């Protein structure tokens, strides 16, 4: 029986035949070709290669689509009984274009790397989890999942980089859930003096409240009916309810660092039993903002040391200095880079426009008007995410847009948590199709139907740019990203041009010119490490050049289809984009690494 067959059978058995079938986010109505709605030269995008007419047919006209929701009675929640919202989209094109990632190069380094798999069924994940993977309609693993899951299931520490929207959440959730299932299931353990202390086996840390909620929701789906207990702890909301929940026992705790430290200090959570530690957006978690808290949690509370616990770090970007920090938390780890990491996928059409600060608002209005007249004005599914630099700027732009006939809502760190959640809900549902946000929304959020990301203000660095635009073009779908580039952003010209070039985007001549002028003026701008400052590069290779350390191994072939290619042997072969010769073809990947193509 095929997976699809089994899935249909299980839905037939449901006791609520009138309820629509659960559809995971990536199977819901996509914005195919919505990057072509701008008149001003946006490339026509073609229908994804893996479009399924059968699925589209079977869902057409059914009306409601399903979305996950937070349910306080989580224990009673049924996988196929999640909240239903009305979907007015006539043509419910259902896509699964994950084949878009097929040709992505993969670099793995470390000792004795477990080989990748081609299917989920090749890995011993446990029946319950496998059934949920089918329920989620994850037919085949994405490249990061193909490589990372076997490494993690083998118990290895892992530092993994993969492009935004390519499925990293499942890549760390599956091994954790499967590991917890294999360990005897925990309940709240009583420690000392009769006080109730929750002792989770796994801890997943994320930088924002919204992202921790999202991971929690995902993990709950993956762990549905497995008896694995999952809870979430994040700030800005009542700690009392979260503590009550923990008292009922927890195996996997998803948390933001601040709230977790609070709970540990109140002796409500102990990390003494942790076997699995995952840091999502790991580079953000270890940068200057979070590093002291993370160090405290990982090194100064009662968490078992590296070697006793398994540690997994995931992000789309991994700057050198963060890798240096991170290696303190890891033991004999595998470094995995899927794709030329940090470069965004060519699923995202990137446009950059030269706009002076004072003209930005009018420029935005024109852009949105054009979008409205060319696009699908009555569809609430073409969502636009506008990034600004400051919280005040977000509020002001929200008001300006509303005054000018565009329904917009702001989200930033000065809003209370309820307002933040409300803004996100309103945006996700399409009720307010424009979200004006600060970087609080730049990382990890998986919002279906984000068709257009506009960098109204450019971010401080190119990593943030990559994460921001990664809110569109996810799970193989197409997206559009527009950047307003002003005099204030000259330091970003070079790295922006490089990111665009590497994602096969057309780089405007004026941008290249600006980058050259900036370099010529003696200022270095955003300096990239060997052409990959924003992306993934195993730092241990630097050690290798000054010692006998040799850490790069071929990724083993699968059925002869997976022929690794050796692309060079040292730093000299690397493409260094410093001369700004951006039109010269850069080697696709390098770093003296052994690379292999995507997953088939
Ligand atoms: N194997 C799969 N098959 C189908 N869909 C998948 C698969 N893996 C992940 N997805 C879907 O892809 C989308 C993106 O996944 P996810 O949010 O994990 O990306 P990510 O790599 O963590 O992105 P970011 O870097 O922005 O955090 C989600 O909607 C998820 O449900």
From TrEMBL:
Enzyme type, top EC level: hydrolase
Pfam families (UniProt xref): DEAD, Helicase_C
Domain Helicase C-terminal: start-end pairs: 360-515
Recorded superkingdom: Eukaryota
TM ranges: none
Annotated segments matching region Disordered: 1-34
SMART domains (UniProt xref): DEXDc, HELICc
Keyword match Nucleotide-binding: yes
Gene3D superfamilies membership: P-loop containing nucleotide triphosphate hydrolases (3.40.50.300)
CDD domains per record: DEADc_DDX3_DDX4, SF2_C_DEAD
Catalyzed reactions per annotation: ATP + H2O = ADP + phosphate + H(+)
Domain spans labelled Helicase ATP-binding: 149-336
Chain positions of motif Q motif: 118-146
Cross-referenced InterPro entries: DEAD/DEAH_box_helicase_dom (IPR011545), Ded1/Dbp1_DEADc (IPR044763), Helicase_ATP-bd (IPR014001), Helicase_C-like (IPR001650), P-loop_NTPase (IPR027417), RNA_helicase_DEAD_Q_motif (IPR014014)
Domain DEAD-box RNA helicase Q: 118-146
Enzyme Commission number: 3.6.4.13
UniProt-recorded Gene Ontology molecular function terms: ATP binding; hydrolase activity; RNA binding; RNA helicase activity
UniProt keyword list: ATP-binding, Helicase, Hydrolase, Nucleotide-binding, RNA-binding
Recorded family membership: Belongs to the DEAD box helicase family. DDX3/DED1 subfamily.
PANTHER family per record: ATP-DEPENDENT RNA HELICASE DBP3
Name assigned to this protein: RNA helicase
